[in-house]
Amino acid sequence: MTNDTAIQPITSIDLAARSVRELNQLLHTAVDGSAFVIDNPAGQHSIGAGIDADIDVTVNGHVGYYFAGMHKTGTVTVHGSAGVGLAENIMSGIVHVTGDASQAAAATGHGGLVIIDGNTGARCGISMKGVDIVVGGSIGHASAFMAQAGRLVVCGDAGEALGDSIYETRIYVRGTVASLGADCVEKPMREEHLAELGDLLTAAGRHEDPADFRRFGSARSLYHFKVDNAGSY
Amino acid sequence: MCGIAALQLRNPTLRGDLGLLMHGMLCEIVDRGPDSAGLALYGDDRLNPADRAAVTLLDVSMDADVFAQTLAVALPGAAVVVTRLGETTLVTALTGTAELEAAIESILQDAQVAGRGEHVTVLKGTGHPLDLAETYGLKQVTGWQGLSHTRMATESAVTASGAHPFTVADDLCLVHNGSFSNHASIRRQLRAEGIHFDSENDSEVAARYIARRLEQGDDLSTALTRLGEVFDGFYTLVVTTPTSMAVVRDPIACKPAIIAETDDWIAMASEYRALASLPGIENARIFEPSPGVVYTWELSPAAPARDTIPEAISL
Q1: How many structural domains is chain B composed of?
Q2: Is the N-terminal amide bond of B165 cis, ω within 30° of 0?
């Protein structure tokens, strides 16, 4: 196998000794193909926000709020858990958390892939606009609220009000759904859904059988104003 | 936005470091509430020695020495000690809490009582939380349980009396991140039942409500479950008694909370970074409390905090 990109040394950053600001500045000036290993994140906020080069970042430990926010390209892996707003507004690239994620994981994400091996808190994929999210465990309430595009895969259970006020987005759940939100309905699993779900699971390194999942999506009944409701306003 | 950090030490060998551990946690919640702060500290032998009652007063205008001398006359043989710590005046005496409070009120008719108990010391004030921690000597504090709060005021003014914790019954402390929307109605109902209020703060209403429920026979968990049925709004609450700590979030989990547990301690904070420096955190069980679920942890009677710790709280 040949590789045109010069092999870059792995840069180690100890966040016990250097600031998040210094680290993020370093990541923002990094060249494609470089790799970073970050130790002692200690739950600090905004680590790895705004990465826009094709780099590989590994974090050993738990990260705080808005980890890998606005992520544009490259692969970021956290060996630990993540706080509120993981990969918020991700555009493309891959963000992988081996532990759990707090509320609003991948909120407003436009593209890319967010993988959470554990569980998430509430509002996973809120207002998602094209991101793919694969959760190995369960997700909290109000997930995929006002979801507009993308795919959300849940290998465990989903909390209350799944997909409330959903526009589009295909949601696949393997376990139970506590309740569906307004205008979110179960839909049949056709061949193309089994195929895309299989691809998503494979991309996330998972081995569940797509046939064990159910699909949920928009009933599209909130797309247009209903004149019958005029009296309510 | 406000910040909360709470710690219950199960392992007695850690209790000499309570203040040091709490200081590390407090540093990480300053950003969430830089206008004022407060502490509830259980079992510090310097601030609240084992055989004494402690009452915390706010904004005492009388000279501390004059106040101490006057109080000593009112309570002969009680070895009254008055300590001024910023806006907080701490009074301890060899009496019961009610007796001490009554003596104080006979001298300072408009005394604002912000803390009371035989085990807890409440300290709070306005200003940067780390400056306040310095004033209170937090790093030197010992004991078995502590609660800290940094406030970003929303519902009432930035004053020492609006800072948390709220301690409206002996050794019972509450801190709140969030805001209640129906506190005025509940305050009116409680006033109609004869309950007195010190402030217009929404969190005080929750503290009064819980104290009332406990007084009427509820245990802490039941009182907090009932609170969820009666109060509307956003909240993460931590409530402590001398032997227990409880955490509850509103049913849609508007405000953050994270819990870490080891054999040696149980800790709760608004954000994980406040837990990151605790000893043994790398092997702790870490989880977010589920919305609307009441979590309580009791200190094991097998490891008494000190000789006088009650087996169960009686309020």
Answers
A1: 2
A2: yes
Q: Are residues B75 and B156 in the same domain?
A: no
Best probe of the B interface among A15, A63, A79, A84, by most B CBs < 10 A, is A84
The residues that bridge with B83 in the sheet, in sequence order, are B90
Contacts of A103 (CB under 8 A, 6+ apart): A84, A85, A120, A121, A122, A123, A124, A140, B253, B256
Q: With CB atoms and an 8 Å threshold, state whether B288 touches A121.
A: yes
pLDDT in tens, B3-44: 999 999 999 999 999 999 999 999 999 999 999 999 999 999
Q: Is residue B222 within 8 Å of B213, Cβ to Cβ?
A: yes
What percent of chain B clears pLDDT 90, i.e. is strictly above it?
90
**Residue A186, class by beta-carbon neighbours within 10 Å (0-12 exposed, 13-18 middle, 19+ buried)?**
middle
Q: Are residues B184 and B59 in the same domain?
A: no
Q: According to the model, what pLDDT value does residue B155 have?
A: 73
Same domain, B151 and B240: yes
Same domain, residue pair B110 and B242: no
* Token pair in block for residue B254: 């508007």
Structure tokens at B273: 């970074």
Say if residue B170 is in the same domain as residue B64: no
Nearest chain A alpha carbon to B292: A141
Closest chain A residue to the Cα of B276, Cα to Cα: A42
Residue B190 included in any domain: yes
In this structure, the answer to whether residues B208 and B229 fall within a common structural domain is yes
Mean of pLDDT values over B121-139: 97
Q: Would you say residue B304 has pLDDT above 60?
A: no
Which pLDDT band holds residue B270 (cuts at 50, 70, 90)?
A: very high
Chain A contacts of B253, Cβ < 8 Å?
103, 121-122, 140-141
Is B2 assigned a catalytic role? yes
Instruction: Give residue B85's domain range.
Output: 51-118
Rounded CA separation B121/B298 (Å): 19
CATH number for B287: 3.60.20.10
Same domain for B99 and B57? yes
Domain boundaries, chain A: 10-204
Q: Which tens digits make up the pLDDT trace of A177-208?
A: 999 999 999 999 999 999 999 999 999 999 99
In a domain, B147, yes or no: yes
* Residue of higher predicted confidence among B309 and B85: B85
For the entire predicted model, the pTM comes to: 0.92
Where are the alpha helices (H) located in chain B, listed in sequence order?
Answer: 18-27, 64-74, 97-107, 129-136, 183-192, 202-215, 220-230
**Structural tokens at position B60:** 């005492």
CA distances from B240 to B15, B122, B260 (A): 17, 12, 17
**Pairwise CB contact (< 8 Å): A43 & B288:** no
Alpha-carbon span A220 to A183, nearest angstrom: 7
Query: Do B251 and B109 share a domain, yes or no?
Result: no
Structure tokens at A207: 């081995």
Task: In whole angstroms, give the CA distance from residue B83 to residue B65.
Answer: 9
Does residue B255 fall inside a structural domain?
A: yes
